[in-house]
């Protein structure tokens, strides 16, 4: 409790000094964009993924490190219900060059003795792959359930074998962020999403298309 209070006080001071806004929604804290920013947001190629963040590191510590290689447009830190970070975040810089520099210079950076972080370009994947569903379930039930439990859905495609049994489902979202939040909602629900089965939910391989699988039929 004392550590969390100290972290909150440090965060409040950081926000006051930096004049950045902080919002929290759907299990993540979003810092930015800069108040002086005008125009459209940076391109998706300006975003990086940071993993293996110590659980006692928050926005002030992260910005102190990643602000050394470029101007940060936005930082999204994933949080759990206890108020601690989940060990990873997304950082968007104002230019692609700054993002590339962060990957080059800060990947495997030793944040403190024996603790290194991982930094890679954020994959702009907007699709989730689901299998191990009840084979005879009707398409409408699957589509309705996915739309009910996640937001920002663009399309749900159910692929069946020639015998009519479900092979897999591809869920397309309007944005990568929507897909990431959808995955965060669906994975904990994998055992209760549909009756009498444990659904497998993972990021879709970009190479998965109907032409890759013989005898697959697509249903919307």
UniProtKB/TrEMBL annotation:
Q: Name one GO molecular function term.
A: RNA binding
| Pfam families from the UniProt entry | RRM_1
**What PANTHER family does the database record attribute to this sequence?**
HETEROGENEOUS NUCLEAR RIBONUCLEOPROTEIN
Entry keywords, A to Z: RNA-binding
Q: Which SUPFAM superfamilies match?
A: RNA-binding domain, RBD
Task: Specify the RRM domain's residue ranges.
Answer: 46-124
Can you say what this protein is called?
A: APOBEC1 complementation factor
